Amino acid sequence: MIRTLIAITAATTLLVAGCTSLPSDSTRLEGRTAPVEYNTVVFTDYDLSRTWTQGILGSGQTYRLSVENHGRRRTETGTTEVYAVLRNHTDFDYRIEARTQFFDEDGVPVDAKPVWQRSTIPANSVSAYKTLSTGTQSLQYRVEVRELE
Amino acid sequence: MKMESRKAVLLGMVSASLLLAGCAGQIDNTRGKATVYEDASTTGRVGGVGIESQDIVAVTDEMMRDMLANRMLAGRDIPPRIIIDNEYMRNESSSVVNTNMLTDRLRIELNRASNGRMIFVGREYAAMVQKERDLKRDGAVDGGTIRETAAQAGADYRLAGRITSLDAADRSDGTQSRYSQISFEMVDMELGTIIWSGLYEMRKAGRDDVVYR
């Protein structure tokens, strides 16, 4: 009797513990339906970072990488340089791809077609991603990060 | 031979004939693998350790953006005249790659993005231009509608570059590794100085049996 109770308790605990984290393919992740924001860095690969508000135990977040800092500045020719400092919280090197889409002040996509840049973030370390715009107008940016396939 | 034995031999021969007939069939009725379009800027289904489409797109994109942030190239009141072609781009690596893909994409993307901040000289087309100029000067055709110039455009800068590689192989499991380096340098065509440099490097490892052509 006691053994059965222990087994049921253990199973329930494991089940609840499992449910505290929504999987990366869940349709209830915040990132899937969040409005597109400018001047931001997003993980389009939910294996790297994901947040939710409607889990069994409420809201939560699971991440392997995070954004430490990001911003933009003008170069000496008037183009825009965008940077993002990414932090790896795991014991494994992560090979990622990142790209930046540029928008003008009205939210219209401008500049050259964004291209994925490959980079490695060493285990438990930080790494900077940088890119430049081609135009000289004032721009907003959206950096997308995913794990390299 | 007994009747039973004859039947067994006959059955064996018929089976063998059917088997051989099956193997010799001319029609392969299996469904083919449909061709699919892939994003040229990402790793595709077929990938090896050589320079591939995603590398060409990434390297030219990075160099283009870097050049447009350089004051000597994109910040002058009078736009500089630049030659970007394959003449001085050398492939010294073990990767099979047509270097025209690098220089063509770089020149075209730069020309579109620079929007007049740089002027590109088509030295590759000099003979074509000269032929038309001669026809105009000889009176065989009229002078066109734009203007006449004393000569074709001279260049301020010209792009040179090199692809090099370092290969390694693990003989125990067949894994190959290749470190590739693609360098670009913009040379002042009067003074010979290098006014801008760009370097792209990568290392790939794999056991895929990929053939580049």
Descriptive report:
The complex is a heterodimer of chains A (149) and B (213). In chain A, strands 1, 6, 7, 8 and 10 form a 5-stranded mixed β-sheet that branches. Chain A has 2 helices and 10 strands, in the order ααββββββββββ. The longest helix of chain B has 21 residues. Chain B has 5 helices and 6 strands; from the N terminus they run αααββαβαβββ. Chain B is elongated and about 105 Å long. Chain B is an alpha/beta fold. The model of chain B has no long low-confidence stretch (mean pLDDT 91). At the A-B interface, loops of A face α2 and α4 of B.
The profile of the biggest β sheet of chain B is:
6 strands, mixed
What are the segments of chain A in which pLDDT stays under 50 over at least 5 consecutive residues? none
| CATH architecture type of chain A | Sandwich
Helix content of chain B: 25-40%
Largest sheet of chain A: 5 strands, mixed
CATH class of chain B: Alpha Beta
Number of domains of chain B: 1
Helix share bin of chain A: 10-25%
| Strand segment count of chain B | 6
Whole-angstrom Rg of chain A: 20 Å
Describe what is shown at a glance.
The complex is a heterodimer of chains A (149) and B (213). Chain A is mainly beta and 149 residues long.
Kindly list the characteristics that best describe this protein.
heterodimer; A: 149 residues; mainly beta; Immunoglobulin-like; five-stranded mixed β-sheet; three-stranded antiparallel β-sheet; 2 helices; 15% helix; B: 213 residues; alpha/beta; Rossmann fold; six-stranded mixed β-sheet; 5 helices
Give the SSE layout.
The complex is a heterodimer of chains A (149) and B (213).
Chain A: H1 2-19, H2 30-33, E1 40-43, E2 49-55, E3 58-63, E4 65-74, E5 80-88, E6 94-103, E7 109-110, E8 117-121, E9 126-132, E10 140-147
Parallel strand pairs in A: 1-10
Antiparallel strand pairs in A: 2-3, 4-5, 5-9, 6-7, 6-8, 6-10
Chain B: H1 3-23, H2 53-68, H3 71-74, E1 81-83, E2 89-91, H4 100-114, E3 119-120, H5 126-137, E4 157-170, E5 175-188, E6 194-206
Parallel strand pairs in B: 1-3, 1-4, 2-4
Antiparallel strand pairs in B: 4-5, 5-6
Helix pairs in contact in B: 2-4
